[in-house]
């Protein structure tokens, strides 16, 4: 494909002496002759001079380069669009695989793709163009919106409702029982039935082996557009706002309330029964025991503002030496006091 | 259902001018007319005045309220019991689904519910009333006690033994190979066969996508009544005592020994080969590298008593300023020494 | 089996008055009469005097013991070899289970063992002696090397390539979509197709419910001999070097590059786009935000050298007291200054 065609389809401005032929898209270190590459992370600017790529997608404000470039205000999006031009997806076979077990009263929309050994329980309702890969299990009463794609070995538990174009990666569990037990006198526990549902709105993606629990009462809710990475735990009754990005291995304890556009890096932990304001960001491994206002960047455990945390962690490295300095001061002051006759 | 009936069935004392009609149970913020609500977490007392619930479950010692209340010494248990009165569980179909593959020599107790595509390996022995949801896999030689419930996509590996009423949530793996490798001269590793079993006693619950590993020798053991949350890792040869509560994403490295009634909040890590005393509690993200005595509350990494940790973390926020103060002191002391002629 | 036979098969030197009969291998605390035991972890030396084992595997340099011993330079390996002499593995049935769904164009090598409900997608190519336990799903275009063993409920996504003797534990997901989204103007996200593959070289083991993501471009790569524990996340485009050992619940964010022989204890987090040198070691819960040179031992977050971290954490416990001491010094210095007329 000519670079000019790619420019058109990705809505970029082409800056090039020649309209080169492009065969594929590759990372800046791996790209060779015929490849289009991109810079999405500033760490990789250093590779610009050495790349063997035939062309590059760049932000408008980036410096001039020797090779043909596609300029845009959103290079990451242009990269995504360019990639699709060369990508050959695995297209799931349409229809219902003869081995699938679909309850007689389940309602399937037009054009389903239901794979081998998939199980669709009683009373399930699926929109149009839904894809269930092999080995998906829908417990009774599940609802899936148009275009939902559920990957192999994912489970959607009873009565959970997923919106349009929701993607559930392999092995994710939507609607497992919340971790709710009433403590008894003798130290043992009484299991509390988890009567609530999980509701996942349109355009959400749930990562592989992630777990989104149902609650005893009320819904666990993932709002429109949020992206939940692999191995994330969303506890019973938590609400995740719109367009949140929750990276791998993060955990929300239960009844956590995240506002809109919250971002959590990996392995963050949120205690239960707390509120996080819109647009708050959490760096990796942050532990959040309390409410957080909108827009802040938080780090550490217990979480404080990132700038404070950075200052404290830098100071901590000086602490062993500081202890010595205080000891020296104590000696000096004692000597001065002796000398002054106190 | 009348509130008085609920009071009787939940063994509560009714405090009410009118015996109101209750249609369901809901959280204090979501409850509307006809709902019974409850306060289990003190954070929610502030909502007492605004709730639109028709009645509330409260501890005996809580203040008087305007709406009808059910008083009890264990409001959380009363809530659980009340919830059951209105809950319509999904009842798995009894019998053996025609697609299930059950080994000819497997012994099934009375009244099984074995779902679609379940696999029961050679020599498995199942008690009465066992539920295997669709897509459960039991490797050969597994034993399940009466009333055990195994959810879709859970795997129980060879020869593991689960007690009565054990519940395994979706995707959990019981008896995967422990992470044991003998280091070789060239830096590579020799896999050690994991010949041990996992033994899970009565009334244990294992969360979704949790992993409980088998060991090379000896049993990995989860004792009676313990509750293990989603995505928890229990390493090879670890023992979890009775009535422990281990929250999501916590990890036990291997050969860890937890006493009775230990509680770990989310994302806690226990190093291997250590002993934790009965009733010890660990706050979220605590890292435990050493033995811990009974009854203490531990935090931080390396774990120290919670009170110490809180004091240290508060002090840490003052450290950048403290460094400045020490520098000032050093100047002052130098000046004093100059002045005194030293 | 006679101890002398075991000595021969494990290449140990026997030190024994009598050539005792051995019936099994057990841990030092559980071992009884007829058992061979071992010490692999120095913590257990204290049990040496009380063990009821009939014989023990010991390193050459360990002190003399009362019971017969097998001496070797690698006691852990000798233990592994001895254990195999008594271990009766579950042998998967060879052939293709009648319920398995194998694409007509899939190429199977000699002597396959393909379990119930396994799915082998179009264009898959399997080497000789491959074992697919029940409920394994191979998406189209997967390649598995000779002797690969894939456990129940594991998924290998489209076009991923696994080498010889790779073992994938239950529920692991190889090749799930990387967590890549282009931010859009309104705060929502555009999913980037994940066109890359996961490549896993020979002799790698992947733990239960671990997730190894594919990338938008380029391969995610696990090199020969590396061992990845349960619930580990390997992000899109990361490379794990040869003979690495990555313990449970560790996460690699994306485009992380680990050298050869890197060791990470549990719950470690690696930020994306960083390089870790050969042989670096990370203690549990370490958070790694930057490049790390070869051979170092790192701890804490942000990670520093372990010795520094230990010193800082010890100092932190003294910080509350240090603050008091500084306050006292300030008073003393103020008094001295008053006295000296400043």
Give a written overview of the molecule.
Chain A is an alpha/beta fold and 342 residues long. Chain A has 3 helices and 38 strands. In chain A, the strands form 5 sheets. Chain A has a 12-stranded mixed β-sheet, covered by helices on one side. In chain A, a hairpin with a 5-residue loop joins strand 20 (181-183) and strand 21. Chain A starts with a helix and ends with a helix. In chain A, 56% of the residues are buried. Chains in contact: A-B, A-C, B-C. Chains A and B meet through strand 19, strand 20, strand 21 and helix 3 of A and helix 2 and helix 3 of B.
Mean pLDDT of chain A: 95
**Which secondary-structure class do the elements of chain A indicate?**
alpha/beta
Number of strands of chain A: 38
Name the chain pair whose interface involves the most residues.
Answer: A-B, 74 and 71 residues
Order of strands side by side in the largest beta sheet of chain A?
6-9-12-15-18-23-26-29-32-35-37-38
Oligomer: homotrimer
CATH architecture of one domain in chain A: 3 Solenoid
CATH superfamily membership of one domain in chain A: Hexapeptide repeat proteins
Helix share, percent of chain A: 10-25%
Number of helices of chain A: 3
Beta-strand content estimate of chain A: 25-35%
Tell me the overall shape of chain A.
flat
The fold-level CATH name of one domain in chain A is: UDP N-Acetylglucosamine Acyltransferase, domain 1
The main β sheet of chain A shows up as: 12 strands, mixed
What would CATH call the class of one domain in chain A? Mainly Beta
Distance between the termini of chain A: 89 Å
- Low-pLDDT runs of 5+ residues of chain A are none
Radius of gyration of chain A: 27 Å
